[in-house]
Give the backbone structure.
Amino acid sequence: MILSREGIINMIRLSSIELVDFKNVEQGTIALSEWEPGDGRLSADIVGIYGQNGSGKTSIIKALSIFKSVLLGYPVNEEARDCPSRKTGTCSIGVKGYCFAEQQTPVWFFSLLIKLAEGHKGDLRIVGEKLSCKDLRPEAGGRPMRAVFDYSASLEGDPSFSLLPMAAWRSVSSISDRLRTDIAVAQRVSFSSSRSLLFSPEFSAALDLAESIRNDSKTNLPNSAVAALDGPVAATKEIVRYLRFFALKDMAVVSASQQAEAMIDHLSISTHQGGLGELADASFRVDISKPARVSDDHIESLNRTLETIGMVLNSLVPGLQLGMMDLGKIMMDDGAIVHQVEITCTRGDVTVPLRCESEGIKKLVTILTMLVDVYSKPGSCVAIDEIDSGIFDFLLGELLQVLSDHGRGQLIFTAHNLRPLETVGKARLVFTTTNPRRRYIKFRGTHATNNLRNQYLRAINLGGQAETIYEPTSKFAIDGAFHDASSQVPKGA
């Protein structure tokens, strides 16, 4: 959440995500929120994604991670390298959502489409960005959705590129030679570094230059330029501002690989008491394989974060207390003075380092700060891959039910454990299919009295849904494969 010029808290709620030619997803759309203008105040939006291995669950989490990187102006070449379809060499991520102002009043509905393409040398580039929006404020008079920024670039990095609507952006570029040059330079820099043009600091600086020229009393701009600055450019700048702060402070994406790393040696813990971005970006890492080294600037906020986590952890694992032991200060090789600390777990009279606890406890500590924000903040958005990894199934079900019933933010997760199918609202669950052109569906024929877990297992065995949700396997074939494989094992091995 961010503060507007008037000091009012602003925020974003994502409403849907669409993938095209993304890994093994030719097309797939998931509704992330059912909220629409007129529905009143926001409540929790919990979306669980289920399906067999390799069916596209992780693709959603991956796409959200790339989306966050784009908003922050980070290069996406390495992160998204394996995402374009092998058939087309391209992929696209489309995200829609609402921007809110004071009292959770919706002011914008936006759609952001990001297109990536793989060049002949294997480098990935952002070759298209399209931002469309609808002004929801009463004074806008119900104007329809319109594209305010539509960028396309040559895959080979040709200096030529296009910005639509053409008349508006051509009028802006014509304000001055310097401005025209700055926009061209911003495009070349962002393209060559696999970054977004829309969210690049260079492009933002160019738009700020245009505004400063317009505010110069000595400069008389053509009416077309003024109209462009007041129209598409102003809308673009405002929504970019919303999205950039959303990615920085309210959005967290945790992949399964990040979790695996956390469970081995490190925990990524947020010390920011109002946002989630730092946790997801692993800006503060605590080495639990040995006493960690923490600066004076972080020690107090780390302690507060652990206290927050500990309050919830004790309710999930009765009798378990989380703490921190300060082992004293030491001097680093560069002369910096840091604290040596050990994160601890206490049961009764016994205190041990967190590193000696189970993977499940470490997992809970890692994600609880984010889940606290989902519970308390309507602007928070958290995506977690394999949320069930290492967590007792009954406990996971209870945790998700509480967030579903009483939370305020957004949680998108993937899981294999079927317990949440019995505790999370049926409308909040999405299932992958074997059809790459319609990869995600909600179950039809689901009623309040149905046990969705049983219905899912029945659909795996017998079908009955609009799409096939499971690629058939055979116990006899599996047994035969094990038998054949065992025959290759050397005798006595």
Q: What stands out?
A: Residues 271-369 form one domain. DSSP finds twelve helices and 20 strands in the chain. The CA atoms of residues 272 and 278 lie 7 Å apart.
